[in-house]
Amino acid sequence: MPESKLANLDVAVIGAGPTGLMLACELAMRGVRVSVLERRQESTNITRAFAIHARTLELLDSRGLVDDVLKRGFAVGSVAPVPGATVSLAEELRVRYPFILMVPQSGTEHVLAARAERLGVRVIRGAEVAGLEQDLNQRNGGVDITLGNGERVRAGYVVGCDGAHSAVRRLLNIDFVGKQYATHIMLADVRLTRPPEELMFARTNNEGVVLVLPFGDGWYRAIVWDRLREQEPLSTPVSMADINDALGRIAGEEDPSDPVPPGLPTLTEKP
Fold it and tell me: For the FAD-binding domain, which residue ranges apply (predicted)?
């Protein structure tokens, strides 16, 4: 089995998401030899997570990263859960950043990856972890990592930061304790023909819950919980028509003369 071109590492971090990249940066600041192994060949432009809260912004500020992240996002300082009722985060949160920053996870990853590079961290893409074996024979121990291409990497420690479907957890037979939350939450990144007036559009009624959140670049994240879909299998595909129908029933105003009620966000692109 071929040896990897990577030198032996103090720590191998598996997963180049925000958690893995931030951890690698923190370790590198303390002189630890660390590399990040990432299954994906390219950095992603997929939204995935979409918001950073006040305390996380403070932590990013402590590392000199907050300005770069703020440039990539859109601050939301209030939310109106029902018409006529607005919650001001600036009044409720007595903190340095009294807002929610709407920013795609891909933007956060780009900022953290750039910092990791400046600190000398290697982010190895296309490095899928296929095997882990702890060496109990040598005095200092360590972990042998087998990659999908057959290469082997030796690290003193391995940290799994590879998400909900973690290969590290699977290879170590560590259970993901809990039960599946068997309900339908529909997510879609969309452009709107009629954007809402509120920065954070939120509506709820007996039919379900709707949130529409801006990214600041013309794209929005629509989050919909629709009671009518509760009996559908979770594997049932979601269409643009499904999202629009749910928006109309949950967030719309009953006006038979207007197929698109005033103030109701409507989609122009498929989720």
Answer: 9-256
User: Which pLDDT does position 139 carry in this prediction?
Assistant: 67
Residue 137, C-beta contacts closer than 8 angstroms, at least 6 positions apart: none
What is the reported pLDDT for 137? 74
Pairing outcome for strands 129-134 and 143-147: antiparallel
pLDDT tens profile 224-234:
999 988 888 87
Question: What predicted TM-score, i.e. pTM, was given to this entire model?
Answer: 0.80
Give me the domain span that covers residue 33.
Answer: 1-43+105-174
Number of Cβ within a 10 Å radius of residue 89? 19
Residue 201, classed as helix, strand or coil, is strand
Query: 263 with 197: CB under 8 angstroms?
Result: yes
Give the whole-angstrom CA distance, residue 224 versus residue 247.
8
DSSP string, 51-83: EE-HHHHHHHHHTT-HHHHHHTSEEE-EEEEET
Instruction: Report yes or no on 151 lying in a domain.
Output: yes
Number of domains in the chain: 3
Helix 105-118 with 18-29: angle, nearest 10 deg: 20
Q: In the sheet that 9-14 helps form, which strands lie side by side, from edge to edge?
A: 122-125, 34-38, 9-14, 152-160, 143-147, 129-134
DSSP state for residue 220 in the 8-state scheme: E
**Backbone phi and psi for residue 22, each to the nearest 5 degrees, phi listed first:** -65, -40
Secondary structure class of 247 (helix, strand, coil) = helix
